[in-house]
Structures are given as C-alpha cells and as structure tokens.
Amino acid sequence: MARRKPTSRWRLRLAALAVLVLLAGFVVLWWHLRGWMPSRQDYSVQGAEVSAADGAMDWTALKTIGTDFVYLDASASAFARDNAFVKNLEDARAAHLQVGAVHLYDPCQPADKQAANFVTVVPRDSKLLPPAVDLDRLADDCPSPVSDAAVTSELMTFLNQVENHAGKSVILKLSSRFERRYHIAHALGRKLWLVRTRLEPDYAGRPWILWTANDRLMTDADDKPLRWVVLQR
C-alpha cells in the first residue's frame, strides 16, 4: 500500500487549522455581540425594537440598561397584527419610554389595505414617535407579477395614508436588499432607518436617523436576543 505523501498530510492539517480559526472567530464575534452597544459618546440616545416574538419583556430592566425609546412591531401586510402590540404599548409607556410603531410592508398586497390595517391597530396619538415602515420583502414571490414601478407607486400611497393618520412623516426602515432592488432612499425623501450589525451602514447613499446596530444583544430585560437601535442626531 502506497504511503500518503507528507505534502498531502500538511495540506490536511492546514485546512483543519483554517477551519478551527474560522470557528474560533465566529465564537469570539458571537460572544462580543452578546454585550455590545455603540458608544454613548457617539450615540447618546439608544433604544430597541420589540415584538410578540420577543416574549415577555421586563420593561423596568429594559429602562435600567439605558433604553430611551422603543419601536413596537404593530402590523404586517394587509391583515396580520402583532398580538402583543397593545400590551407592549401600555407597558412601555408605564416604564416612561418613548414609543413608536412599525409596519412590515408587503409589496404583494394593496397599499390601501395595508394602511387600513396599520391605522386600525395604531391609535392616532401625537405622543407616539413617527411611524416606521419595514421595507425588506421583495415582490419576486408575489402570486401576480408586480413591477418595480408599481412597488414604488403603491408604497407612496401607503405612506401618504399612514402619514395622514399619524400627522408625522414616516421613517423608512430600509434593508440593503430592498434598496438594491428598488433604489428608494433618494426617491421617496423620508428619514431612514438602516440595519447592519456592528458596522455603521452606508448602503442608502445618504445619512440615516436610526440604525439597528446589534440584533443579538443579550440583556436582563429578556432571555432572547434584543434588536438594539441607536439615534443619530
């Protein structure tokens, strides 16, 4: 039987070492993100995004760790609603947090039905923060084809109706893939909320006001990872 050449053995060892280094890097990053928040010197106002999926939140603990505001997931598409929104709104206000509401936009559904869903769930209240619309879903999987132009047009209809209800301009929570596809950051002229873990986002091509800086933050407020958001003044 032929012996394996020494060169082959070294290649296997080097490959195994590379895999171990890569895994160690992931572990270090995971551990780092469990407790990482952007500096308060850079971002003095910080908060979180909360939904029913986060389970029971300890709002006092959330306030204690330095939360200034929360955005609560409220509605999605034309019919879905976050079943914890009403209680979360009440509890967040009792903890003396500023509160806003988020709608997850669905390009497959008519804008007016989505707006009706949002305004049914979210009260008309001047004390609420500007509403946010989460733009991540693409129209690629819609049952009926939806053109890029139609996505932008319907989105404008949705924004106008929600802003009429809220009395404030909507903030666009814009994912990188949605921006790459529809290029709306400049077209719609609303303030932006961008998402990128650990590194400041720049994919919109213009300044943002909110940044989801860490979606894996572990705190005493919950036993699940928290989506941590900072404000840029």
Description:
36% of the residues lie in helices and 23% in strands. It is of the alpha/beta class. An eight-stranded mixed β-barrel has the order 1-2-4-5-6-7-8-9, surrounded by four helices. Helix 2 links the parallel strand 1 (46-50) and strand 2. Helix 4 (111-121) runs parallel beside helix 5 (148-166).
Query: Strand percentage, roughly?
Result: 15-25%
Main sheet: strand order:
1-2-4-5-6-7-8-9
Helix content: 25-40%
* CATH fold-level name of the largest domain: TIM Barrel
Number of helices: 6
Query: What is the ordering of alpha helices and beta strands?
Result: HEHEEHEHEHEHEEE
Query: What is the CATH superfamily label of the largest domain?
Result: Glycosidases
**Broad CATH class of the largest domain:** Alpha Beta
How many domains make up the coordinates?
2
Overall mean pLDDT score?
90
CATH architecture classification name of the largest domain: Alpha-Beta Barrel
Basic shape: globular
Number of strands: 9
Main sheet specs: 8 strands, mixed, barrel
Jot down its keywords.
233 residues; alpha/beta; TIM Barrel; 2 domains; 8-stranded mixed barrel; 9 strands
Quick structural overview:
The chain has 233 residues and is α/β, with parallel strands linked by helices. The chain contains 6 helices and 9 strands; from the N terminus they run αβαββαβαβαβαβββ.
Give the SSE map.
Blueprint: H1 6-35, E1 46-50, H2 59-64, E2 69-76, E3 80-81, H3 85-94, E4 98-104, H4 111-121, E5 132-135, H5 148-166, E6 171-174, H6 176-182, E7 192-195, E8 210-219, E9 222-231
Parallel strand pairs: 1-2, 2-4, 4-5, 5-6, 6-7, 7-8
Antiparallel strand pairs: 1-9, 2-3, 8-9
Helix pairs in contact: 4-5
